[in-house]
Design a protein that fits this description.
Elements: E1 54-65, E2 86-90, E3 97-104, E4 110-120, E5 131-133, E6 138-139, E7 141-149, E8 152-160, E9 167-175, E10 180-183
Antiparallel strand pairs: 1-9, 2-8, 2-10, 3-7, 3-9, 4-5, 4-6, 4-8
Length: 185
Amino acid sequence: HYLVKLVTDDEDSNGPTFYTLVVSQYEKNIDIYYSLRVYATCQFSLTPVPEYYNPRYQQEITGEWKGKTAGGCQNNTATYKNNPVYQLVLNNREGNNHIKIELRAPKQFQVGFEVTCTETNVSNAAGEFQKTESGSYRSGFCVLTLDNIPGGTYTIRPATFDPNRESPFFLNVASSHQCALTKLQ
């Protein structure tokens, strides 16, 4: 049994406050089954996180960092550009595309990726951006969700934190709309 207590100061809030509860294992060895009970001193609702992604529009590519393409993170300015690069095309004029990008590698590698918008089909979309990253490099897995982004062309550059770390990896993209994922370099 695990008991979690969350204390909040609701007086600082102008409207509802949202929290995400994640049930997880440190290292998955077996499937787990669980029950969840929530008690509160105020009114609340507990609902699943919406799943925006259509299983028909999910793609996975197996890649690898090998030799020259094991360039490491942006700290390695001379070699970072040699990491593999993938192109993601959202061939629509919608501004409400939802994308989830996952990078998986052996857990002894700290991994991350960068996403760059190279062309948009919609101007001034709520989620429009030039460049973003998956965050801190993590052991074996990282994920990034992009919400309400415009249709267009994006590049994804997966990397290990340290250069010269050779390994296969899996790049998975799930989308709310039709997309195409291809290797550029």
